[in-house]
Each structure stands twice: as structure tokens, then as C-alpha cells.
Amino acid sequence: MKEKLKRLLPAAIILAFSCLMLLPYICSKGIIMGGDAIFHYNRFYDTAMQIKTGHFNYFTTFFGFQQSGRVVNAVYGPLFAYFQGFLVLISGSWRHYQILSDLVLYLFAGGSMYLLLRTNRLKKTLALPLAGLFITTYAIQYWTLSQGFTSWGTSLMPLALIPLSKIVRDKQLPVWSTALVLALMTQIHVLSTIMLVLLYIPFVATALYHGKVGRLFKQIGQALLIYLGLTANIWYAMFTLYRHNDILPPFINGNMSQDSINTAAWYWLVMPVVLIILGLTAIWPLIRHWRQLSLYNHLIWLTALVFLLLSTNLLPWDHFIQQKMFFAELIQFPFRFFAPFTVLLIIGYGQLLKEVPNFERIGPYFLTFLTLLGLLQTSASTSQSLQSFYHKDWQAQHVTHSYVLNSNQAIRQSMASPQLLDLLTNLQKSTPDYLPVDQPTKASKYNTYAREIVFSHQKVTKKVTPNGLLISWFARDDRPVQLPVVLYHDSQLSLPASKQKLVKPLALSSIGQPTVVSRPGHNQLLLHYHSTLPMPWLLAFVGLIWLVALSQLLRYRLMMKRQLQQPIYGKQGTNRQN
Q1: Could you tell me if 300 and 348 are in contact, meaning their C-beta atoms sit under 8 angstroms apart?
Q2: What is the DSSP string of 207-273?
Q3: In the chain, what are the domain boundaries?
Q4: pLDDT score of 408 more than 70
Q5: What confidence score (pLDDT) does residue 567 get?
Q6: How far is it, in rounded angstroms, from Cα 480 to Cα 516?
Q7: Using CA atoms, how far apart are residues 165 and 179, in angstroms rounded to an integer?
Q8: What is the DSSP string of 500-526?
Q9: Which of 24, 170, 259, 575 is at 20 to 30 A from 266, Cα to Cα?
Q10: From residue 45, how far is each of 5, 69, 305, 435 by CA, in Å?
Q11: What is the 3-state secondary structure (H, E, C) of 265-303?
Q12: pLDDT tens readout for residues 322-372
């Protein structure tokens, strides 16, 4: 019994530390509404209502985003969106959701970092404070303070890096675990997956250089096939969506250089300031003992430096945008590279504590001090943001493409209201990502979406049914009417009596808003999305692959336990058993 409690102690400490991080929320009445909050809350409200009503629409949003029928979740972490929708549903209000989602995020971050450090044989007394320190970094707090979704991918990135030590040590790719962690990241955040693949490149390249090329390529191919099976739902959705539609991508940042960590995004460096302290104290041990460090540690620090460089404006990001480089357009903000750097910095520091003689002696006390310092600074920042947003004059605040449609008091009440839709009705944003662009035009799609969907003057009622979105309106004559919904190539309008009786729109606007003919009196049309491949069957196939992969992961964990008794990679004498 005592041994079991001892094994559970690290989890209890991470949970307790995460709860301490939530004290500002518990002591406050408000929530923090960052720049991406309305966009993500609409995504999760939609999946929450799908779970609650049983009316599942994998592709289209019939509850969120003004019930416009636009496609978002199907190409943006679909399975994880349902997980978030479940959190919204059990929370009962947006205030409680923020508390619960932050707690889950902190547990993901602390647990995954601790698991990675322990897999790399770092002592518990060193792994625990480093895991806590990771929770306090802005790479994780980006969600808390701004609802930046990058934090969710970053929180599980340490878990996704566990196979790297085996790649370097054994010159082999652990097929199932690699495929699983890459698929998990893709189901959460595709951009984080791209970062992860970039991070993997130097480790795999090293293994290819020192190992058997044929065997490694075979393992990479096997991992890729399994990965495609685990993420088939995403690639099928993207294929069907982009095949027949000209999809509007997220906005292209023409001033990328201003969003680097050495310009406007400097707060990534100093929130909390412990990251700078960690980096500075690592310089001397790195320089003095570089030759004695393991190959794995070399790769960690060199890769970290590359990501640090990418997060600055030392690269001509604006020039890349002018040259229409797809990679730069996809990244949008250089500071996003600082999230993987944060993960690598903490891992590398842990490796230094293990490999540099006598360096670990000051580790537990020094790291505990830094973690508590990070806790205090982050808590103060969260408290300040909570106070600022609670007392904010929403009507006087003019944010581009954001619209305040109620009083300050009503907005504050809707934050804690069990009526989840109230907040999304009071605060709206005309983000046009993933809309179909049927007519090329220079007009702002933000303004077009606001005019045609958010502020549509056509009085219609919308009701979600098992067959789709039922749109009803009354007309005095048979003149054309623009419906406040969005049509893709596979979106269909039909008469409610039969989904087979399709109604062809007279015209589509530049973002796919249909114009139809009304008849005098009461009118009804049904909006639904026709998927060539039945999604329930595809999701069942993906679920089966996940079950197989998880069973293989269990086998992998048993293997790792046996390997803990074996000497680890690196030069003899530099890696002491812990």
C-alpha cells in the first residue's frame, strides 16, 4: 500500500500545483476573453450541443457560428473538438469551462513533461519541479491568457518526444508509438504536428546517418501508414472539402517580423522570467562539458537553438510573405516557434542536470525556487487579466471585426450563465476562416461575413433536426431572398418533405451565401451536407485503428520498464543511474 501511494505521489503533486495555478480564477468572478476566444468557443459550443441533442453533424456547424452551416471543426482537430465540447457540456457555463479546461491543460502539460523526463531517467526530485515550471511558461499560459490553441498541442509535445531517445540510442524508429503521438497531435492541432515533424528531422537524420538506412526507411513507411489510418477522418474531410471548393485560408500576416519574440511578442520570453534564468544558467555547463554530453543532449540543444532563431525576426519573414512562401503564410506568427523551444529548453536542462558532474546537487532547490517564482508571476498576470476583463467597458472597446451586441452588465452575466449561447450572441466575431470563396473579390471577407451572416436583415428561424438545419421564413411575395447560411459544393438545400427534392440557388455570394426564390406565405428549406463516404463508418475504422495502436502502446510501456534496468545512451561515465 505504501509503495502504491509513493507511485501516486508525483501525480498528486502535479494536480495540487495545477490547482494552485487556478486560484486566481477561483477568487475571481470573471473570465478572460482573448483574441481567439469567440472563434474556439463557437467550435466547442457546436460539438457540445451535438453531444447534448444527439444531432451529429461532423462537417457543418448547425449550432455555433450563427448556425451558418460553415465547415470548421472537420479540418481543425475534429476529435479533440468533441472532447472540448464534452468539457463545455459538463461545465455548465463559460466561466466554469475556463477553469476546467485550464486544469485539464495543466495536467496534460505537467504529466507529459514529467513522463518524458522520467523516461529519460531523471530523478523525481528534478523531474517534478521541471514539470511544474513547464506549466507556468507562456507556451502553456497562451491558452489561459489569450485562448491561443497552440498551448494544447504544446502541452502534449513532451509526450510526443518520448520516442526520440530510442531513435538516437538504438538507431530505430519505434513504429507504433511514433505514429500514435503524431496522430494524437494531428487530432488536436495540425500546426503543432508540423512543428513536431520539424523537431523530429535532426534526430531521424542522425539515426539514418549512423544506422541501417533500409531498416529505418521501412519503419518510417510503416509509421506513416499507421498514422494515416489514425488520422483518416481529417485527410478525408480535407480532400472532399478542398477538392471542389476554393477554401479561404486563415489570414496571411504581412507583418510577421513584428510578431517575433524580440519585437512585439517579447512577453513569451519574460512570462515567466524563469525561462531566461534557466537559459542563462545552462550556458556555462554547456560550454564547459559539451564534449562529454551525450549525442541525444547535443541534438536537443542544437534543435532548440534552431527553433529559437526561427522565433525571432532575424529571418526575413516579411520577405518570405512577399514571395508568397506557403510555409511562412501557414505559420503566421514567428513566436509560435518559441513553444517547441520552451519544451526543448526544459528537456535539455534536465539532461544537463543528469550528465554534468555535480550540477544536479543544486538542482532540486534551485528548480523548486524557479517553479514557485513562475507560479507567483503567472498567478499575478492571470489575476490582473481577470480583473481587467471583468471591469472592461466592452461597448467602448473597438476591436477589429469584433462586435458587442449587448450591455456590459449582460456580457458579465452571460460569462457565468448556464445559457451558453448568451455569451456567443452578445460577443460576435466575423472570422471567415475556411469559408468557400466562389467569386474572387478584393472585398474584405471579414466584412462580407459580418454583413451576410452576422447582421443579416433577412428574418429567418433556424432549427436543428436529425435531417439537417431547418430554415423557416415568411414572405409576402415571390421575390428572391438571401438566406444567412453558407453553401459548399457538397452542401444541399432541399424541401423538408424529402431530402431528394433538391433546391438549386439562384446565385451564391462571394462566401457562398445562397439566394433562393420565396413563395408567398410560410417557407421552409432543409440544409444538409452530403458526404460521399459515410462518416460513421470512417470514424469506426479510425476508432479501431486507435484501439490497436493503444494496445501496442501498452506493450511499448512494458518494454520501457524493462529498459530502465539497462545502461542509457551516451559516453560511459557521463550518464549516472538515478
Answers
A1: yes
A2: HHHHS-HHHHHHHHHHHHHHHHHHTHHHHHHHHHHHHH--BPPSPP-TTGGGGSTTTTTTHHHHSST
A3: 2-30+93-386
A4: yes
A5: 55
A6: 5
A7: 16
A8: EEE---SEE-TT--EEEE--SEEEEEE
A9: 24
A10: 39, 14, 39, 19
A11: CCHHHHCCCHHHHHHHHHHHHHHHHHHHCCHHHHHHHHH
A12: 998 989 999 999 999 999 999 999 999 999 999 998 887 778 889 999 999
Pair 185, 193: CB distance under 8 Å = yes
For residue 473 the three cell numbers come to 421564413
Beta bridge partners of 403: 428
Beta bridge pairs of residue 465: 468
Helix residue ranges per DSSP H, 63-93: 78-91
Cβ-count burial 78-96 (b if 16+ within 10 Å, e if not): bbbbbebbebbbebebbbb
Q: What is the largest CA-CA distance in the chain?
A: 88
| H or E segment to which residue 364 belongs | helix 363-390
Cell 508525483, residue? 10
Distances (CA, A) of 378 to 267, 306, 342, 375: 12, 27, 16, 5
CA distance 66 to 424: 9
- The amino acid present at 422, given as its one-letter code, is D
pLDDT of residue 251: 84
Please tell me the distance from the alpha carbon of residue 419 to that of residue 436, in angstroms, as a whole number. 31
Read off the pLDDT of residues 75-100 as tens digits, 9 standing for 90 and up: 999 999 999 999 999 999 999 999 99
| Sequence-distant (≥ 6) Cβ neighbours of residue 227 within 8 angstroms | 178, 179, 182, 183, 186
Residue 440 pLDDT more than 70? no
